[in-house]
């Protein structure tokens, strides 16, 4: 008999498992609002025009070879990624006190950052918001950090529990790591205001708490790359240190290319150099070096003024379509007279709406309406279109009445 006979069936991933169930459903009206991937008004995946252009340039360039990249990835990509998140004229970048390494999308960047911290940082506790992206606690625990939480979302107001957040960070041990969503908090769509960010910054700096930013949605929240990076830039402008994990999955639609970056902002260039040398020791035995194709696409776009501009337009169009879906769903529920205050649908930011539907209502909508979402009631607004808003409205209406 098999030496693996004792192995028990593992559960599906709570987010990716939604798509597995969706794929098995034969209904023609089925709707997948589970995974956070952009869809067009026709419900199709989108490859940006500017990405196609960049790929064409790469294909036509016969000087390009398929050699290994360095352990830290493509140099141009790293420099341009740091400037994208920290600002084109960031003094920290100019002073060479930022080390940036290309990693496997946002998840890989978080993992490399966490492994580095577990090995070299004096405080192994990381505070994550409640709720947060379901993969966060697993990534950090497996990297060797000890995961604790801070209050974030208030279900009664469907907004930020700012007082709870401040209290929990205030009572965290000095030096603890704090995970912050740079913008478009997943799953709640609730972000601090700039004034609240400033208070968080002051509190964290006064307690020497170390910020680890997860930036998976830069440009996707507001439509502006700079506006969505403000939280990170506040923490860099004060001269202090932080880590930033960037993903190009959503904002360039490069999901499956697995392209992202980890930046560690240090106080001085010599520190950054030594940090980078240790990041290489983390990466080399994990996957040796990152893939070349996705990073080449990103670097091609970021370094060309026209292509960069075209990207910002396409990004804005995606963000605007999501914002218009919020309005359409809100209007449809109001027109339908669905009980409840649904204004959070238009107040929340980014790819998701945290509807407030409970797990029974989610199950009901799946069974009766073939609408798929995570059991916490999170729906991906990017998976919705004008055509499917009425069906979703019917389902929500039936679920809450
Ligand atoms: N962080 C958050 C908050 C996310 O929502 C996601 C993707 O859903 C990621 C990180 C990482 O995604 P990826 O590894 O595909 O870049």
Automatic annotation (TrEMBL):
Pfam families: Aminotran_1_2 (PF00155). This is Aspartate aminotransferase. Its cofactor is pyridoxal 5'-phosphate. The keyword Transferase applies. It is an enzyme of class 2 (transferase). GO terms for biological process: amino acid metabolic process. SUPFAM superfamilies: PLP-dependent transferases. Homodimer. Keywords: Aminotransferase, Pyridoxal phosphate, Transferase. One of its GO terms (cellular component) is mitochondrion. Gene3D superfamilies: Aspartate Aminotransferase, domain 1, Type I PLP-dependent aspartate aminotransferase-like (Major domain). The keyword Transferase applies. It catalyses: L-aspartate + 2-oxoglutarate = oxaloacetate + L-glutamate. In eukaryotes there are cytoplasmic, mitochondrial and chloroplastic isozymes. It comes from the Eukaryota.
């Amino acid at each position: 008999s098999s030496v693996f006979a004792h192995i028990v069936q593992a559960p599906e991933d709570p987010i990716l498992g939604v798509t597995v169930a969706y794929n098995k459903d034969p209904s023609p009206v089925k709707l997948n609002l589970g995974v956070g991937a952009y869809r067009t008004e026709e419900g199709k995946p989108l490859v940006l025009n500017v990405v196609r252009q960049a790929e064409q340039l790469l294909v036509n360039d016969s000087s390009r070879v398929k050699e290994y990249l360095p352990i830290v990835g493509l140099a141009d990509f790293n420099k341009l990624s740091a400037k994208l998140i920290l600002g084109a004229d960031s003094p920290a970048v100019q002073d060479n006190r930022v080390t940036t390494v290309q990693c496997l999308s946002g998840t890989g960047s978080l993992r490399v950052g966490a492994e580095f911290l577990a090995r070299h940082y004096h405080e192994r506790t990381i505070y994550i918001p409640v709720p947060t992206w379901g993969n966060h606690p697993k990534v950090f625990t497996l990297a060797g950090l000890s995961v604790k939480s801070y209050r974030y979302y208030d279900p009664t107001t469907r907004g930020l529990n700012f007082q709870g957040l401040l209290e929990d960070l205030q009572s965290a041990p000095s030096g603890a790591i704090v995970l912050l969503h740079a913008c478009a908090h997943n799953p709640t769509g609730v972000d601090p205001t700039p004034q609240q960010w400033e208070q968080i910054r002051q509190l964290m700096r006064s307690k020497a708490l170390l910020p680890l930013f997860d930036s998976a949605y830069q440009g996707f929240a507001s439509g502006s790359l700079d506006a969505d990076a403000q939280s990170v830039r506040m923490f860099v402008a004060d001269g202090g240190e932080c880590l930033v994990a960037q993903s190009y999955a959503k904002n360039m639609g490069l999901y499956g290319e697995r392209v992202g970056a980890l930046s560690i902002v240090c106080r001085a260039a010599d520190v950054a150099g030594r940090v980078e040398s240790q990041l290489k020791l983390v990466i080399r035995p994990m996957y040796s070096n990152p893939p070349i194709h996705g990073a080449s696409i990103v670097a091609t776009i970021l370094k060309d003024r026209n292509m960069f501009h075209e990207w910002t337009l396409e990004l804005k169009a995606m963000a605007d379509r999501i914002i218009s879906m919020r309005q359409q769903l809100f209007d449809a529920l109001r027109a339908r007279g669905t009980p409840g205050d649904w204004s959070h649908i238009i107040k929340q930011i980014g790819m998701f709406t945290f509807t407030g539907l409970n797990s029974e209502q989610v199950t009901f909508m799946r069974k009766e309406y073939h609408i798929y979402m995570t059991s916490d009631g999170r729906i991906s607004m990017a998976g919705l279109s004008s055509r499917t808003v009425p069906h979703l409205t019917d389902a929500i209406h039936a679920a809450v009445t």
